[in-house]
Amino acid sequence: MRLDDMPESGNVEDRRGDGGGFGGGGGMGGLPIGTGGLGIGGMVVLGLVGWALGIDPWLLIQGANVVIGDRGGYEQQQHPQQDTARRTGAPGDEMGKFVARVLGSTEVVWKDIFSKEGQTYRAPRLVMFSGQTRSACGAAQSAMGPFYCPNDREVYLDTSFFNDLERRFRGCSGKACQFAQAYVIAHEVGHHVQNQLGILPKVQQAQRTSGDRVQSNQLQVQVELQADCFAGVWAKNAEAQYKLIEPGDIDAALQTASAIGDDTLQRRTQGTVVPESFTHGSAEQRKRWFMTGFKEGTVKACNTFGSARL
């Protein structure tokens, strides 16, 4: 992956080295669905796009359901602000610069796409942290994987996950891992695009009114596959502008998408595949929708909801 021509974003907040402390309780974000189980609100805290990106999902989801299963929703908790001065802008280390450049390229791409539709793109902030920190959706921990919080419109990333992506999940190998890592960031930014387009609030409302776990999961799958497609849209448009893709990069992204498919993860963690419980899509679906976005390069190509009414 060629990084030289990609702009560095100033929307990076570097909390690495803060010690990982936070003063408030790590509660769930205030996104009730009324079913008592994990819907999109719980997925935000457990890694709304990133939940499947670097975590044993079934252990985490089961643990969360034990805590909130009888509550019928998620209470929003207020958290005291940390006193630590925040470091914003492009970090000076190699990983920080990489993240800033990928984020910068997403800003250019989505600003241009939104502008062509007569809209204004408001870029998210990306918070780099180590171990744990706070978000407006509650506690953020490295075990959750990268995720997007719609409450504060920020992406949260502990880059130690990238090591898990390569070694634990075998989602990439060698230098091509850089593009796989960029795909992860672009996927989370894709959730921000969904939020700005009003898609996430509509899905949340549809989940609340459905009261059906299987239907709620299906909507969640469509959300995640669209974020994969938006990551492909970013790759297509960023390549046209920066010529960033090198041989093996797209294969690495597809390998990552396959490694984090629900069926792949279920097979690894529980030995069987239960499609009704999918929340991010199968390996085949994730690869297909990324490639749809990459081939077409437009938002309209990413209608994963089809005829579903939101």
Q: What can you see in these coordinates?
A:
The structure is a single chain. With 310 residues, this protein is an alpha/beta fold. It has ten helices and seven strands. It has helices spanning 40-45, 57-68, 94-116, 161-167, 177-196, 199-210, 213-242, 249-259, 262-270, 283-296, and strands spanning 12-14, 87-88, 125-128, 132-135, 138-141, 147-149, 154-157. The strands form two sheets. Strands 2-1-3-7-6 form a five-stranded mixed β-sheet, covered by helices on one side. A hairpin with a 2-residue loop joins strand 4 (132-135) and strand 5. Helix 5 (177-196) crosses helix 8, helix 7 (213-242) runs parallel beside helix 10 (283-296) and helix 8 packs antiparallel against helix 10 (283-296). The chain starts with 11 loop residues before the first strand and ends in a 14-residue tail after the last helix.
Q: How would you spell out the order of helices and strands?
A: EHHEHEEEEEHHHHHHH
* Structural shape: globular
Radius of gyration: 18 Å
The low-confidence parts are 21-84
Q: Residue share in helices?
A: 40-55%
Structural class: alpha/beta
| Major sheet | 5 strands, mixed
Instruction: Report the end-to-end length measured between terminal Cα atoms.
Output: 37 Å
Number of strands: 7
